[in-house]
Amino acid sequence: MVVLLLFTSSCTQEDKLTDEPLVEADADTDTDTDTDTDAVASLADIEDHSVNRASVALDGELLWLSTEEGANDIGGFHGSGVGNKAIAGVPGYDGLGLGELGALRAEGRSETGDSSLYLNLVVDLACDGSALVIAVVDVEGFAIEDLAEGYASYAADPDAEQWRAVGGLDDILPGHLESDRGRLVEVVEAYPEACLRDADTLDGGMPAGVVTRSVLWVLGDSSNTEANGWTVRSLGVGEDVLGAP
Questions:
Q1: Does the pLDDT at position 167 exceed 70?
Q2: Residue 54 domain-assigned?
Q3: Are the C-beta atoms of 94 and 47 separated by less than 8 Å?
Q4: Of the candidates 60, 70, 213, 235, which lies 20 to 30 Å from 194 by C-alpha distance?
Q5: Based on the structure, what is the number of domains in the chain?
Q6: How far apart are CA 216 and CA 119, in angstroms?
Q7: Structure confidence at residue 175 (pLDDT)
């Protein structure tokens, strides 16, 4: 298996910028191509994949993502990161064809700190476990709409130019420049079998030895040692909307 890392980010994120673009992945990664049909009814179904002093938890009707201040011993991440990273996994999309994926969105609000919420997708280019892509959209990539009470909607569309690649988008989409923003639909055109994949990607910014969900909302990174907190009142994947339980 090959792991390729895709992202779009305005922040310095050591776990994404310094990883090798191509590394061998875990041979035990589940490569079953059947779609995960687990029903996701509300924010109560979200899973906590956080690393070190970070957490994802339901607080009443809101999902709370938080990171604490301070560094940690090496070992929480696959890489050498000592930071704190809150990772909220959305179950139910393993094996979904990338071409079937609709827009992704979150309604959230920063409560403490300066870090912004961002989105990860784990994509299996051939839907057979042979090549995984980690895609990320951050605050500069999102389409943002201000809402009441300090909340905002953060949306990412597969057909919008919101996506970049760690080694350059040209690594997987010839014709693009290294720093171009691309569209996920272009990935589908180049890799028609591409699907979402729950996996342990071996990415340096992911939790060591953990199979994460393919749709991940994230706060912090492997170098983050600052306290941050966000509340999220709803998440969306295509027509699916996850709100208060």
A1: no
A2: no
A3: no
A4: 235
A5: 1
A6: 6
A7: 84
Rg (Cα) of the chain, in Å, rounded?
A: 16
Instruction: Decide if 96 is inside a domain.
Output: yes
Asked whether residue 20 is domain-assigned, the answer is yes
Q: Are 197 and 96 in contact (CB under 8 A)?
A: no
Instruction: Name residues whose C-beta falls within 8 Å of residue 26's C-beta, 6 or more positions apart in sequence.
Output: 1, 199, 200, 201, 202
Task: Find the length of the chain.
Answer: 245
Asked if 153 and 25 count as a contact pair (C-beta separation under 8 A), the reply is: no
Range of the domain at 233: 2-30+60-242
Q: Residue 225 belongs to what H/E stretch?
A: none
Residues 6+ apart with CB under 8 A from 140: 8, 9, 10
What DSSP string runs through 4-61?
EEB---SS--HHHHSS-SSEEPPTT-----SPP-----SGGG-EE--BSSEEEEEETT
Using alpha carbons, select from 172, 113, 118 the residue that is nearest to residue 144.
118
Query: φ, ψ for residue 121 (rounded to 5)?
Result: -125, 135
> What does the block give as tokens for 124?
């299996």
* Least confidently predicted of 101-110, 160-169, 206-215: 160-169
